Amino acid sequence: MDLESVKRYLETGGYEEDKNASTIEKMPLRFFERFIMQGLHIDLIEPGRVVCSMKVPPRLLNGGNFLHGGATATLVDLVGSAAIFTVGAPATGVSVEINVSYLDAAFADVGISPPLSYILFLACVFLNALIE
């Protein structure tokens, strides 16, 4: 693919003309989080720990028909933030780094839950530094 085609693909989301632009701009606030998390079930919640599961919905599939890596990273970010709230933090701040190890593909209508097919290890390091 030539560079101009790659540029056009990235700028238009794969469409020759961006016919979805006006629709996308009208999406409700925080639509993306709701789009990813709809169908998530909390199996256990306690201070410092959130265990959840979900059946992979077709809307979160990539071109290979399995859970999109971006959806996985978003779930890690959002559920990780929820775990921070369980210890009484008033806010979570901004994720600086997220590292996801993909152990296997999760296909449509397959349940993902720990510890069988999806394991999340969340380590949070809080640093107090003077920034000049």
UniProtKB/TrEMBL annotation:
Pfam families: 4HBT
Protein name, UniProt field: Thioesterase domain-containing protein
SUPFAM superfamilies assigned: Thioesterase/thiol ester dehydrase-isomerase
Matches recorded under Gene3D superfamilies: Hotdog Thioesterase
Keywords recorded for this protein, A-Z: Hydrolase, Membrane, Transmembrane, Transmembrane helix
Domain Thioesterase residue range list: 65-108
Similarity comment: Belongs to the thioesterase PaaI family.
Keyword Electron transport among UniProt keywords: no
InterPro entries the record matches: ACOT13, HotDog_dom_sf, PAAI_dom, Thioestr_dom
Species of origin: Populus tomentosa
Domain of life, source organism: Eukaryota
Molecular function per GO: fatty acyl-CoA hydrolase activity
Matching PANTHER family: F19P19.27 PROTEIN, THIOESTERASE SUPERFAMILY MEMBER-RELATED
Transmembrane segments: 112-131
